Amino acid sequence: MQFPTVEKRCKKAYGSDYVPLPAPSIFVNNVLVRLALSSDSKQYVEWRDKANGMMQLPVIGINTEKKELWPVVAIAQNYFLVCCVPFVEDKNIDRKDLLNVFSVSIGFSVLLGILNFLATADRLTCLIDLDNYLTLSMPFGTPSDTDLSSAPYINKFHSQKFIKRQPAWKPFDYKGRQQISFKILEFVRSVQSDQSGGICHFETFGQISVKADVEGSLNDVTVSLLSTESGQPLSLDSVVIHPCVNVHGPSSIGSGSLKRLRFSPPSYEFIMLQYCSPFPKDPPIQGVFKMLGENSVELLIQLKLNDKVKNSFEYCDLIIVFFNRIKVSKRFGSCSHS
């Protein structure tokens, strides 16, 4: 999808340094060659594979007949390759300072939203829906929303009467049973050792997602966060909240025992906040494995539940990844628990 308005702005800003977009087939072929995804990618190409070359993936530059076209943001994921060419107004910007190029960050967010939409949508109709959504959400080539979660709802919304102004994050009103659901996803990353004096390193982090089905376009929802331990205050570090969420109470969300979060929810499920927690001080599950053998390998795995954790799991999966291994011909195992 090309936007003539953006191309005219680029011509005016760059003048004689303007690099036109090549034909779609040539553009796709150049991107595949640059990312080593073409049929002859196993062959060594000096300008692409040299050790002293500057790599800034997912931002790349592709060669055209005249000059290099930069920046091109390209992401390959789940058998899809999506890319865009953001408009950088300052033609003298330092390429090493990508963090200050806002159009690149916006383009990257849009591509991630497209990939998430393609991964969950129906393959037969998703391309048509995606084209319709991009046409509506990018007037004159400027994205109004980088989250494509509401794309299926917008495409099904055919009302021709616009009585009131709808916010960009909620382009239509919900009608039906009102309910709010929360989902907490928490991870514990741990490095453990059974040797005497071994140091255990671990960190706890997670996110809280919200799906709010409420009638009206500008309704506010207030959520209170508090610690379940009466003598232990709520302590969260490195908290990242969604732009639509406001924190009421202490200036820092990681201090105090009660936090109130106020937000006007969008129509789709969104991540309300992401956090890191200094608690608990001990990992919930302690585990160690030992591996012996040459031709045949004996693997001993021992897991122990922390005394402070209740054994109320519905299931527990243990996955051990063996990198660069050959095909396993025979497997024998026995399990004991107490």
From TrEMBL:
It is a peripheral membrane protein. The chain crosses the membrane at residues 98-119. The keyword Membrane applies. GO terms for biological process: endosomal transport; protein transport. It is found in: Endomembrane system. Gene3D superfamilies: Mu homology domain, subdomain B. One of its GO terms (cellular component) is lysosome. It comes from the Eukaryota. Keywords: Membrane, Protein transport, Transmembrane, Transmembrane helix, Transport. Residues 177-338 form the MHD domain. The keyword RNA-binding does not apply. PANTHER family: AP-5 COMPLEX SUBUNIT MU-1. Probably part of the adaptor protein complex 5 (AP-5) a tetramer composed of AP5B1, AP5M1, AP5S1 and AP5Z1. Belongs to the adaptor complexes medium subunit family. This is AP-5 complex subunit mu-1.
